[in-house]
Amino acid sequence: AQWFPRMAAYYDVYGWQHKQFLGAGEFTLEFGDYDVRITVPSDHVVASTGELQNPGDVLSAAQRERLKQARTAKKPVIIVTQAEAEAAEKARSAVSSGATKTWHFKAKNVRDFAFASSRKFIWDAQGVKSGDVDVLAMSYYPKEGNPLWEKYSTQAIIHTIEQYNKYSFDYPYPTAISVNGPVGGMEYPMISFNGPRPSKDKKTGEITYSQRTKYGLIGVIIHEVGHNYFPMIVNSDE
């Protein structure tokens, strides 16, 4: 994120919006359409603002079929399994070969753009209806995120959309994404980055999580996905 220059917005009342970004809040931006190609090592999976345009070039036939099934599924469908992610992490085939793939995304009427790329990503998805829009709720996380992320991340995205739709307006975008990363939480159009993970129990050595961590994850996803409504769509100046 924050990896390319953005045009400052112009207000008829206040003029140019040229405040510096100091990390304490976002500010009004111009909307635009994005057509982006991201070239990464061939064993990486990319999560991004927008819709994937070329699944045939970057996903296996089995993964494409899982993605199709996810659109009408009643629970999250695993697109890239933990076994597949662990195999990619272990082999690191693209490191030695130098092979790459280009992921192509398009996003309409958004005020920003962000993406994440990793060979460690597990990827799950489930469709949810938002007014007239079929939204694909998706989560991307490494094995270190399980068993917490596979249980709650995508479900928390869907819960957020359903509740915000009920009390404000219908989510208009085709995707809503939660990515596990080294942050507390941060949001961009259609994609958010959320930090909580399980930890190893000091007594048993088991990978587990507390109620605090569980609800911390659910809460931060609700918070960050909710930012799609404010300021990403309403475009409020915080």
Automatic annotation (TrEMBL):
One of its GO terms (molecular function) is aminopeptidase activity. Transmembrane segments: none annotated. Keywords: Aminopeptidase, Hydrolase, Protease. It comes from the Bacteria. This is Aminopeptidase. It comes from Massilia aurea.
